[in-house]
Write a structure and sequence with these properties.
It is a single chain. By secondary structure, this protein is of the alpha/beta class. The protein folds into 2 domains: 78 residues, no CATH class; 186 residues, Type I PLP-dependent aspartate aminotransferase-like (Major domain) (Aspartate Aminotransferase, domain 2). Helix content is 28%, strand content 19%. The chain has 10 helices and 14 strands. The strands form 4 sheets. Strands 11-10-12-13-14 form a 5-stranded parallel β-sheet, sandwiched between helices. Strand 5 and strand 6 form a beta hairpin. The longest helix has 18 residues. The two termini are 46 Å apart.
Length: 356
């Protein structure tokens, strides 16, 4: 027996929807939607319910829901999209948009404000993504909009290696108030991936060494170099090899997956890191150890404090630079300006982006 549940279509009239159906597979067979015996659906919304026959539920789904449902036993995704796209602009141009970015929704956004996105056809959608962690103050916060408009009227583009301009100096002044005192130099780039690539370049230039150590489950970007640093899944790498060399992968202390306590996982991962330095990339060849302060795509896992302190000790022992990737975890997303503050460990380089 399986229960498909969908939450969340939000409009002016409906606050929340709970949607479910029970399907029973054939005895002893692998369950699949095509082999399920259809039963009537019951749709519960705020204040009233509605019964649908199995014949009409498909039409109802196509018309009213656009969120994915998962068969948890088979991990098969079933996607139903609401028919938002009827504009000529969409019909003429969407097919020419690169398929490099996949998406589960097919609405066209007209504007956004606070926690909501408004579509071309007037729907109001509650945005749980925040631009993948970008708009921490909500969409189009009045103070942010006012600041952008003000600066746009003063300078549209001031190339950093040509012009010294006030906003950059003001930003440095504000950053110096929140970063550890030893972080005393600032480099500005266009994206998280570019920040990571430059962090690696800086580490190599500063140490005169060529190798980088990353951890299982890491995500550091999708450019050619950061793909090589990323180990969260093969989808980012497949078909793009050979990738840059000199990158070595060490176990992340994921205690739950390891069936260990946090301290046991920490001790094991630090031991494996020492083994990596003895067997594959010698300390004299290793420029930096790069880690997300909170593992992102690899499962949103907080590493043990003892592990982060151990990394600092190993780096200090061998003259290796320690880089904390705070692109996703930085700027208030863990309750502090930087996630590294929870560990009491200061890296040599911090990378940040997104909500920054």
């Amino acid at each position: 027996m399986m229960l498909f549940t969908a939450f969340g279509w939000y409009s002016q009239d409906w606050v929340c929807m709970h949607f479910s159906q029970h399907w029973f597979g054939q005895s002893g067979s692998t369950s699949h939607p095509s082999s399920f015996q259809k039963r009537p659906w019951r749709v519960e919304t705020s204040g009233f319910g509605k019964d649908l026959s199995s014949e009409s539920v498909g039409d109802y789904l196509a018309e009213e829901l656009f969120i994915p449902k998962m068969d948890r036993r088979e991990s098969v995704h079933f996607l139903v999209k609401r028919r938002f796209m009827n504009t000529q602009l969409y019909q003429d141009n969407f097919s020419h948009m690169t398929p490099a970015w996949s998406r589960i929704f097919n609405f066209v956004a007209d504007r956004a404000e606070g926690a909501y996105i408004y579509t071309e056809d007037g729907k109001k959608l509650l945005d749980f993504t925040s631009g993948i962690g970008v708009t921490n103050t909500g969409h189009c916060h009045p103070k942010v909009v006012e600041a952008i408009r003000g600066k746009a009227g003063l300078f549209l583009h001031a190339q950093a290696n040509i012009v010294i301009h006030k906003p950059m100096l003001q930003l440095i002044e504000e950053l110096r108030k929140i970063v550890p005192p030893s972080i005393d130099s600032f480099y500005f780039a266009n994206s998280g991936a570019e920040a990571l690539e430059n962090a690696v370049k800086i580490a190599k230039a500063a140490t005169g060494r060529q190798n980088i150590i990353v951890f299982n489950g890491s995500f550091h970007g999708r450019t050619h170099a950061t793909m090589a640093l990323t180990t969260s899944k093969t989808g980012y790498r497949t078909g793009f090899g050979p990738l840059p060399s000199g990158i070595y992968v060490s176990p992340f202390p994921y205690a739950f997956n390891m069936h260990m306590t946090e301290e046991q996982a920490s001790e094991y991962a630090l031991g494996q890191l020492e083994y990596l330095l003895a067997s594959q990339t010698a300390p004299k060849d290793t420029a930096a150890i790069l880690i997300e302060s909170v593992l992102g795509e690899g499962g949103y896992i907080v590493p043990p404090t003892s592990f982060m302190k151990g990394l600092r000790e190993i780096c200090d022992k061998h003259g290796i630079m320690l880089i904390f990737d705070e692109v996703q975890s930085g700027f208030g997303r863990t309750g502090k300006w930087f996630a590294l503050e929870h560990f009491g460990v200061v890296p040599d380089i911090i990378t940040c982006c997104i909500s920054f």
